[in-house]
Design brief:
Shape: globular
Strand content: 25-35%
Structural class: alpha+beta
Radius of gyration: 17 Å
């Protein structure tokens, strides 16, 4: 069931898994793309990746605006130059707010957009999220942006590619809540709702073997440029 609360602000995120924002009892019709939305991303080899845990309804412009106002940076594309830069900055402990993220796949394609929020002075730790735009739109002509938000705890050499890869933290709900808090406090949401029991499997591992756990809910924010 989808429920919305457009007035009371979400509870603040903390380092110890914040309680998710409350929701009112008013029913909100879910976005039509949710009926066929995947629950997990996939790696390039087709293995199950990070869980889908957040979504936004709105335009490309509104999503960029919301994330920028919330203190998030658009990730650079993966190139030889950006790969060398992130490796050097991890070693030298230099900030790289636009550090690239690896590709994951939903609806048969890699992420359309990715954003991150640095932690400290090294790109080895960061909040980050990938988004995929739905082909289906709602009655207002707005697409759904499915997202997978996770926290990078450290970097390692990938066992499969031999390149540098991040290891994610298990508390993915905390990252979902933080993203909703950041965009809500930035005044870029006209409302939000929760999709209960979006995930039936509440524990798993991603494509890199990192464990995660969730309460199974999907947060859906409704974007606005007018607030």
């Amino acid at each position: 069931m989808a429920r919305e609360d457009a007035s009371a602000p979400p509870a603040p995120a903390t380092e110890s898994a914040a309680d998710p924002p409350a929701a009112a009892d008013r029913f909100v019709a879910p976005h039509p793309a949710l009926s066929t939305a995947p629950r997990r991303t996939k790696t390039g080899r087709g293995n199950a990746g990070d869980p889908i845990n957040v979504a936004f309804v709105g335009s490309d412009r509104e999503l960029h605006h919301a994330l920028a106002r919330g203190g998030w940076y658009a990730a650079d594309p993966i190139t030889l130059q950006s790969s060398l830069k992130i490796a050097a900055d991890v070693v030298l402990k230099k900030p790289y707010p636009h550090a690239p993220v690896s590709d994951l796949f939903v609806w048969g394609r890699k992420q359309d957009l990715a954003f991150e929020q640095p932690v400290g002075r090294s790109p080895k730790q960061r909040h980050h999220v990938r988004f995929w735009r739905s082909e289906a739109v709602d009655e207002d002509g707005e697409p759904l942006w499915l997202g997978a938000a996770t926290y990078d705890e450290r970097v390692e050499i990938s066992r499969t590619t031999g390149g540098i890869t991040h290891r994610i933290g298990a508390a993915v709900d905390q990252e979902r809540n933080k993203l909703l808090v950041d965009t809500h406090h930035a005044g870029t949401l006209s409302g939000y709702y929760w999709v209960d029991r979006f995930h039936r499997e509440l524990r798993g591992t991603n494509g890199g073997g990192d464990p995660f756990h969730t309460d199974g809910r999907l947060a859906v924010g409704v974007l606005s440029l007018t607030r």
